[in-house]
């Protein structure tokens, strides 16, 4: 059995953990290697493992990309919309926002560099994700079609993920094109 601290970390992450997390929990490379040979541990990619007893789960690719990019990475853009379940848009890449100092390239992953404030990050399904207002602003800035923004705003309000007042307040603080498009989406929701 693994050290309880590492097991707890993996359990909260769908059975996945990084080599860095294992080291922080006091698990050596030799112990990881032993568990790999024994079959109680699976190597998913370099530096990312899964406890064999955990079944594959939805969004496993998001866990793997996040852990491979480093724990300071945050799911964002279209990947954040997927976690929020706000549109029918299926991203063809995993989107992560990372600090400017990070630059680990991965196939199928688009890295966005930005400094995120702690109040712009939340957790969904065991993964760090940009907050809804930050996600919508990022999507507008990246050029996502307005119809997707409108659909996301409508769904977020209908599902009670954010109130109209909170969305207005946070978007107006950001200003610019993002604010005008998201406010337009709010007006469109009222017209329905």
Topology:
Layout: H1 4-12, E1 16-18, H2 19-24, H3 29-38, E2 41-45, E3 48-51, H4 60-69, E4 74-75, H5 77-84, E5 94-98, E6 109-113, E7 121-124, E8 127-130, H6 132-141, H7 146-158, H8 164-174, H9 176-191
Parallel strand pairs: 5-6
Antiparallel strand pairs: 1-3, 2-3, 4-5, 7-8
Helix pairs in contact: 5-6, 6-7, 6-8, 6-9, 7-9, 8-9
Give an account of the 3D structure.
The structure is a single chain. With 192 residues, the chain is of the alpha+beta class. It folds into two domains: 48 residues, no CATH class; 132 residues, no CATH class. It is 48% helix and 17% strand. The mean pLDDT is 90.
- Shape, principal axes of CA atoms: elongated
Number of separate strands: 8
Structural class computed from helices and strand pairing: alpha+beta
Main sheet?
3 strands, antiparallel
Count of DSSP H/I helices: 9
Q: What is the string of helix and strand elements? A: HEHHEEHEHEEEEHHHH
What is the residue-averaged pLDDT? Answer: 90
Kindly provide the radius of gyration, computed on alpha-carbon positions and rounded to a whole number of angstroms.
19 Å
Number of domains: 2
Q: How much helix, percentage-wise, in residues?
A: 40-55%
Order of strands in the sheet with most strands: 1-3-2
Distance between the termini: 56 Å
The proportion of strand residues reads 15-25%
Return residue spans where pLDDT drops below 50 for at least 5 consecutive residues. Answer: none
């Amino acid at each position: 059995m693994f050290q309880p601290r590492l097991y707890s970390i993996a359990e909260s992450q769908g059975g996945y953990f990084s080599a860095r997390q294992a080291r922080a929990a006091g698990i050596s490379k030799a112990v990881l290697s032993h568990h790999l040979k024994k079959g109680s541990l699976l190597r998913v990619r370099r530096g990312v493992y899964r406890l064999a007893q955990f079944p594959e789960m939805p969004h496993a690719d998001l866990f793997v990309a996040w852990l491979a990019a480093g724990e300071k990475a945050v799911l964002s853009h279209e990947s954040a919309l997927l976690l929020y379940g706000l549109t029918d848009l299926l991203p063809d890449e995993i989107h992560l926002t990372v600090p400017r100092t990070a630059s680990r390239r991965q196939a199928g992953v688009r890295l966005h560099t930005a400094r995120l404030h702690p109040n712009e990050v939340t957790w969904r399904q065991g993964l760090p994700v940009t907050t809804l207002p930050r996600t919508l602003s990022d999507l507008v800035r990246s050029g996502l079609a307005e119809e997707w923004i409108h659909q996301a705003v409508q769904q977020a309000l209908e599902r009670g993920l954010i109130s109209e007042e909170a969305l207005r307040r946070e978007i107006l603080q950001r200003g610019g094109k993002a604010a005008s498009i998201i406010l337009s989406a709010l007006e469109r929701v009222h017209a329905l």
